[in-house]
Write a structure and sequence with these properties.
Helices cover 41% and strands 24% of the residues. With 206 residues, the chain is α/β, with parallel strands linked by helices. The protein has a single domain, classed as 3-Layer(aba) Sandwich (Rossmann fold), CATH 3.40.50. The longest helix has 14 residues. It is globular, with a radius of gyration of 16 Å. The N and C termini lie far apart (36 Å). The mean pLDDT is 87.
Length: 206
C-alpha cells in the first residue's frame, strides 16, 4: 500500500506514466460529478492543480472554449502526458501545462476565476500554506473546487482501513476541510458527499 500511495503521490518513470493513464480513465466520472457543482463563465481562466495525466484539463478546455486553462503538476512525467493529451489545445495556447509544486506556483496574483484540485490535496506538502498559495492566484470572488474519492465519513474505517495507516497520505473529513479553508482565508465553504462512493466535493470562495 505504501508503494501504491507513493507512485500516486509523485508518479515517475514508466510506472508513473501507467498510473497517469489509469487515472485519466478511472477518475472521469468523479471529475464530471465534481465540475457539475459549479457554474463557470465560458471565458473563465481556470487552473487545475495536480493535473496528472491531463484528462481533467481536457474536460475543462472542451467545456470552456473561450477561456484559458492551465494545468500544473510536480511530476515531469505527468506534465509530459498532460501536454501530449492536450497537444492541439497547447499548440493553440488555449491550454498551458506547467511543471511546478502547488507550494510555489509560478503564476501571478489574482489570475484565475476557478482553481480545481482533483484527487491531489491528500499529498500536498503543507495543506494550510498550500491553500493560501492557491488563494493567492485566485481573483476576488474566485472559486476553489476540491474533488476527492476518499474522505473520512461514518463508515470510512471499515471500507478503507489500509489507507488510514499509510504515511504521507492525509485523508480529511468535511469539518477538516471547512476549518482548513477558513483558516486559509476562504469563505462560503460548501460540501457535498456521496459516502457510498467515497466521493466528496468541497467548494470555497475567495
Amino acid at each position: 500500500m505504501e508503494d501504491v500511495v507513493r507512485i500516486h503521490a509523485n508518479p515517475s518513470g514508466e510506472d508513473g506514466k501507467k498510473v497517469g493513464l489509469e487515472m485519466n480513465e478511472h477518475h472521469y466520472e468523479l471529475w464530471k460529478w465534481g465540475i457539475g457543482h459549479i457554474s463557470i463563465e465560458p471565458d473563465s481562466w481556470i487552473l487545475d492543480v495536480g493535473c496528472g495525466g491531463g484528462r481533467a484539463v481536457s474536460i475543462l478546455a472542451d467545456l470552456f472554449e473561450a477561456g484559458k486553462v492551465y494545468g500544473v503538476d510536480h511530476s515531469s512525467e505527468m506534465v509530459e502526458l498532460a501536454t501530449e493529451l492536450n497537444k492541439n489545445a497547447v499548440d493553440s495556447e488555449h491550454v498551458t501545462i506547467i511543471h511546478s509544486s502547488v507550494s510555489e506556483l509560478p503564476l501571478s496574483d489574482d489570475m484565475f476565476d476557478i482553481v480545481t484540485a482533483f484527487e491531489t490535496c491528500y499529498f500536498w506538502p503543507d495543506i494550510l500554506e498550500d491553500l493560501k498559495e492557491v488563494r493567492r492566484v485566485l481573483k476576488d470572488g474566485g472559486i476553489l473546487l476540491i474533488v476527492n474519492e476518499m474522505y473520512e465519513h461514518s463508515n470510512f474505517e471499515e471500507r478503507n482501513t489500509p489507507f488510514t495507516e499509510v504515511v504521507g497520505m492525509n485523508i480529511f473529513s468535511p469539518q477538516d476541510y471547512r476549518v482548513m479553508l477558513e483558516s486559509a482565508g476562504f469563505s462560503s465553504v460548501e460540501v457535498d458527499e456521496v459516502p457510498e462512493n467515497n466521493w466528496i466535493t468541497v467548494i470555497a470562495k475567495k
